[in-house]
Amino acid sequence: MSVINYAMKFFSSASTATAACPVCGLKSVQPLSKVRLNQTMLCPGCKALFISRR
Ligand SMILES: [Zn+2]
């Protein structure tokens, strides 16, 4: 079922969330899976690693 594979790939790449860096306050777009799984995200501004809490 290549259509389903394509759809899942599309949705996984399109699922993003905006996270604010706790160090410099810069908002950046991060993969939604990282936000949901509490994985560390890299701030593009100050290069700090942080975990989004909400
Ligand atoms: Zn930052």
From TrEMBL:
<dbReference type="InterPro" id="IPR057793">
    <property type="entry name" value="YnfU-like"/>
</dbReference>
<keyword id="KW-0732">Signal</keyword>
<feature type="signal peptide">
    <location>
        <begin position="1"/>
        <end position="19"/>
    </location>
</feature>
<protein>
    <submittedName>
        <fullName>YnfU family zinc-binding protein</fullName>
    </submittedName>
</protein>
